[in-house]
Design brief:
Elements lengths: L1 E6 L2 H17 L10 E6 L5 E3 L2 E3 L1 H11 L16 H9 L10 H15 L4 H9 L7 E4 L7 E4 L6 E3 H7 L8 E4 L11 H6 L3 E4 L8 H6 L3 H6 L5 E4 L2 E2 L2 E2 L4 H7 L6 H8 L10 E5 L6 H6 L3 E5 L6 H15 L2
Parallel strand pairs: 1-2, 1-9, 2-5, 9-10, 10-13, 13-14
Antiparallel strand pairs: 3-4, 6-7, 6-8, 11-12
Helix pairs in contact: 1-2, 1-13, 4-5
């Protein structure tokens, strides 16, 4: 079975880890791997240049999580980090003092920047970086082009980079809109459209619908590939019991006029039968009342436990998503 997952960072990383665990349990190949093929198509709208380095937060969150090298307590970065370099940068007045990069993490950013400045596209740089780790899947940026998200914060059209709005201001400044710079000229990274077209199942991870999944689908060609895929498309709600699981995705949903509710996010994505991207949608057990609403929109739905408390619960969610895709 070939599975392609559209994914953002932390929530997507935990879902992918559960999916990998489930498939290894169901189809072990005897070598600790899996006979199934997983491709993660990852949001790059959060990316940026900072102190001369190219930072790709979502790609790195997934890579570290699958490699077992992430800091589970903080939810981002590497375990056992030190921050001596960031302290030196602050002393020099360079960079963003509120955006701390750990020393081990900086090694990844330096390596990525070296590859990019050597002329490699982001997809090839990602492949070389990921080759260090036993990820058990293929990691693809949604695009090799720089499509950074800017947040419109006032009626005059003033904008901030998404990371400044998200990390520094904690989404406290009301967002008027989200702009993906140069998205119209972007193209899917090599392998992305093929991964969707050749998949037996396409999954939409429980990631931010606006600035993660929305950015991926906004790259010309990707939405069309999803809507015309021969495989079923099943999503997992990032909203449980009327609240986002992690971060401030509710502020993003509010900015585009979508309620923070499992059924509202499903309707935002829409049914493939009516031009949307979903065939199926998992909601949390707390949101069982949303199932009839989603079904009425032409999307198969089921209410199951969605809290990814550990590896087993994450794997159970992946199992349910696959089951929902079956006729």
């Amino acid at each position: 079975m070939k599975i392609t997952v559209l994914s953002g960072g932390v929530g997507g990383a935990r879902f992918l880890r559960g999916l990998r665990h489930h498939l290894r349990h169901v189809h072990p190949d005897g070598n600790g791997g899996t006979t199934d093929s997983i491709t993660a198509v990852v949001n790059t709208g959060d990316d940026m240049w900072l102190t001369g380095l190219r930072i790709s937060p979502d790609l790195d969150s997934i890579m570290y999580t699958l490699a077992g090298a992430n800091d589970e307590e903080r939810g981002w970065g590497r375990i056992g980090e030190s921050e001596r370099v960031s302290a030196e940068l602050r002393a020099y007045g360079v960079g963003w003092p509120w955006f701390t990069l750990g020393d081990l993490d900086l090694g990844t950013h330096i390596t990525r920047s070296h590859y990019l400045r050597s002329g490699l596209p982001l997809s090839e740089a990602t492949a070389r970086i990921a080759a260090r780790w036993d990820l058990g899947l293929r990691l693809l940026p949604a695009t090799d082009d720089e499509v950074e998200t800017r947040v419109v914060i006032d009626d005059e059209g003033s904008t901030l980079h998404f990371q400044e709005w998200w990390t520094r201001h904690r989404a406290s400044l009301p967002a008027r809109a989200f702009l993906q710079q140069n998205v119209e000229a972007a193209t899917p990274a090599p392998g992305v459209l093929e991964a969707i077209a050749e998949a037996d199942l396409v999954l939409v991870a429980p990631s931010n619908p606006v600035v993660s999944i929305g950015t991926i689908l906004g790259i010309p060609g990707i939405r069309h590939a999803v809507t015309t895929a021969s495989a079923p498309v099943v999503g997992v709600s990032p909203v449980i019991g009327g609240a986002v699981v992690r971060g401030m995705a509710d502020a993003c949903l509010e900015a585009i006029g979508v309620a923070t509710a499992a059924d509202a996010v499903a309707l935002h994505y829409g049914s493939r039968a009516t031009g949307g991207v979903l065939d199926g949608w998992l909601v949390g057990g707390e949101d069982a009342a949303a199932v009839p609403v989603v079904l009425a929109a032409g999307i198969r739905a089921a209410a199951v436990p969605l809290w990814m408390r550990d590896l087993d619960t994450s794997a159970a969610i992946a199992r349910e998503a696959i089951a929902l895709a079956l006729p």
